[in-house]
Design a protein that fits this description.
This protein is α/β, with parallel strands linked by helices. Helices cover about 45% and strands about 15% of the residues. A seven-stranded mixed beta sheet has the order 3-2-1-4-7-6-8, sandwiched between helices. Strands 5-9 form a two-stranded antiparallel ribbon.
């Protein structure tokens, strides 16, 4: 048992494992936090990273804890539910800290991380945001499988807010909430059919009518929606600053990676619509969306999103025609003289990208 006094320094915690893209997200999120702290000198908080791969965090002002497979599996038991590890980890950090905040990797900061900790106090849970109320969608699997059981136990009703756990911040005095959420996850996992979002749902249940809940979408951006566009921005930043991710230029550039969706201006979109009217109807929307990825943005990180628009155009076309867009169809459509004229010298790069993405 740890008998040392808990540290009063706020603890910003990341849990990162798996594919390279998650580590890229985490490095960028940390850099954006540092940018809003004013750099790495005299930091008023500690940043802890629990990861299966410490290498990406070398040189960053963080405490790295190597997380082996056995530990991660133990934290996921008894059902192998890996999101359970978030609650186990935050509970562990709170054993030695007065305040701790676990944040998902797919985030970046609009303000100082200290502004988030100002919302963390005894009797308060800080989450990313409220989605809706439990009873708003009675067709959802979590409602159909759990509503009656939870109502009978007096744990939830239709008015319960559904929380997004992209941020979880608690004071040490409220660590018992995580004991309850972990226990509830274990009890409900099979009944809920192993629902992907059970973790944040259980957080919603244990917080309901027991603590004050605050949110922070004004302080951070959590890009769980339109993820590929933001990952393209982050990857462009990583590519540019991999050698020195916390120098002045790199930290300044984090502010250029915005929550803005990099679409062409409305007038430009109308022009694309007009241009593509001359194409056969079934090709119009596809080429129009391809052109979204051809717009030249002033912001270099928005510009990096072009190929994502091309992939999205293909995905949307496949949904419309209810079958894959294969190499033969791409060759045929891109050979169209009018398509050649519309896309110009960009045509070859777009064609090659779509052909290579099909092969992956």
């Amino acid at each position: 048992m740890n008998t040392a006094s808990p540290t009063p320094r706020p603890q910003l915690v990341y849990l990162v494992f798996g594919a390279e893209t998650y580590h890229q997200e985490a490095v960028f999120s940390i850099a954006s936090a540092l940018a809003h702290l004013g750099g790495t000198q005299n930091m008023p908080l500690d940043i802890q990273v629990f990861s299966d791969n410490p290498t990406p965090y070398a040189g960053l002002p963080v405490q790295v804890h190597t997380l082996d497979d056995a530990t991660r599996q133990r934290w996921s038991e008894p059902h192998g539910y890996h999101f359970r590890t978030k609650h186990v980890l935050l509970r562990q950090v709170l054993e030695t800290s007065e305040r701790a905040l676990l944040i998902d990797t797919d985030t970046f900061f609009h303000d100082s991380p200290m502004a988030l900790f100002e919302r963390v106090a005894p009797g308060t849970l800080l989450c990313n945001a409220f989605h809706a109320k439990y009873g708003d969608n009675r067709e959802s699997p979590l409602y159909g499988s759990l509503a009656k059981v939870l109502a009978e136990k007096g744990l939830a009703d239709d008015d319960m807010p559904l929380l997004n756990s992209g941020v979880m911040g608690l004071a040490r005095e409220d660590a018992h909430l995580l004991d309850h959420s972990i226990k509830l996850m274990d009890e409900l996992f099979l009944l809920a059919g192993g629902a992907y979002t059970l973790e944040e749902f259980c957080l919603s249940v244990v917080a309901y009518r027991t603590v004050n809940v605050r949110q922070c979408p004004d302080l951070i951006h959590h890009y769980w929606s339109r993820k590929q566009l933001f990952r393209a921005k982050v990857k462009a930043w990583i590519t540019k600053h991999a050698a020195a991710p916390i120098n002045a230029e790199a930290l300044a550039d984090t502010r250029k990676v915005s929550a803005h969706l990099p679409r062409p201006p409305r007038l430009q979109r109308q022009m694309y619509k007009l241009i593509t009217l001359a194409l056969p109807k079934r090709k119009q929307q596809f080429i129009r969306e391809i052109l979204y990825g051809c717009y030249e943005h002033e912001n270099e990180f928005d510009q990096a999103c072009g190929p994502v628009w091309w992939d999205k155009a293909r995905q949307n076309q496949e949904e419309r025609q209810k079958c894959p867009v294969d190499a033969h169809q791409l060759e045929h459509w891109f050979a169209n003289p009018l398509v050649r004229l519309i896309l110009g010298e960009r045509r070859a790069a777009i064609h090659d990208h779509l052909m290579s993405s099909e092969a992956k």
